[in-house]
Each structure stands twice: as structure tokens, then as C-alpha cells.
Design goal:
The chain is mainly beta and 158 residues long. It has one domain (2-76, 112-157): Porin, CATH 2.40.160.20. It is 15% helix and 56% strand. The protein is built from two helices and eight strands, in the order H-E-H-E-E-E-E-E-E-E. An eight-stranded antiparallel beta barrel has the order 1-2-3-4-5-6-7-8. Strand 5 (98-110) and strand 6 form a beta hairpin. It is globular and about 45 Å long. The termini are far apart.
Length: 158
């Protein structure tokens, strides 16, 4: 397990020092209708206006990124998240322009209901990439009327 975190730390350091710049734009927070009653759905925000920045690099089919985002959470309060992300990608065409990826993020988030104390948030992530533009998403597991949220954002590498 130490080797896993050691590799993640080294890749995060490399992304920060040598990676490309990334712009993150949160686009959707979707509360899974199988786990929420209509009363909760009606009061939750699903448009997480915000922005983020990061740095990333490719190593073969592996993408490594370090990022930070701030956006409106489900209750319309400011939420921040920052961390390291890893995606293994498969080419969808012969040109290599289109890719689909799955992986994880090791992050910290800060939310109003936790008095903005940083909380660890490891999550599964997936992506669909066309050249320098990616639609990425993470799923936050949970229980009835709490968690079970798909959070999606666009990432532009420049």
C-alpha cells in the first residue's frame, strides 16, 4: 500500500512541476433518482457553477493530474476539492483522438456542513476525451437521500 501512495505522490509532484495546464469547469451534479425522494430532489442544486485549475501529464495510456476546484454544492454553498487523479485510457479510434478512461482520485474536500474542515474523499472517476477536451465525472456513493451523486466537469488542457 505504501508503494501505491508513493507512486501517486511522485506522479503528483511531476504533474505540478512538468505537467500541462488544465482548466476545470464543473457542469453537473446529478442526484441519483433511485436513492432520493422528490422532496430532496426539488431543493437540491444540480448546476455546480464554479471553476478550477490543475496540471497534468500523459504517460502512454495513463493520465495523471493534480487539480483544485471551487463550486456551488448541492445545498448552494461553496465547496472546494483538491487532489490527485489517475485514469487508465483506451483509444476509441485509430487516430488516438478519442479516449475513454477509468480510474480514481485521492482528494480532500471542504463543505459547509463540516465547518469547512478538510475531509478525505477518495472516489472512482471516468472520462471521455477528445484531443485536449475531457468530460470527467466522479460518483459519490451514499445512502438514502445522502450521497449517491454523480459530479461531472469539463477539463481543457492548454
Amino acid at each position: 500500500m505504501g508503494n501505491f501512495f508513493g507512486r501517486a505522490f511522485e506522479n503528483a509532484k511531476y504533474a505540478l512541476s512538468c505537467g500541462n495546464n488544465d482548466l476545470y469547469v464543473p457542469v453537473r451534479t446529478w442526484h441519483n433518482r433511485l436513492f432520493y425522494d422528490q422532496e430532496h430532489i426539488d431543493k437540491y442544486n444540480e448546476e455546480p457553477w464554479g471553476i478550477g485549475f490543475g496540471r497534468s501529464f500523459w504517460e502512454g495510456n495513463e493520465w495523471h493530474g493534480v487539480y483544485a476546484m471551487a463550486f456551488k454544492d448541492s445545498n448552494f454553498y461553496l465547496e472546494t476539492i483538491a487532489g490527485y487523479a489517475y485514469l487508465y485510457n483506451w483509444d476509441l479510434d485509430n487516430s488516438g483522438d478519442w479516449k475513454v478512461g477509468v480510474g480514481y482520485t485521492l482528494s480532500l474536500t471542504q463543505r459547509e456542513e463540516y465547518m469547512y474542515i478538510p475531509v478525505p474523499l477518495p472516489l472512482p472517476i471516468a472520462s471521455l476525451t477528445y484531443q485536449r477536451l475531457s468530460l470527467q465525472a466522479a460518483y459519490i456513493p451514499g445512502v438514502k437521500n445522502d450521497g449517491n451523486v454523480l459530479f461531472a466537469w469539463l477539463k481543457w488542457t492548454f
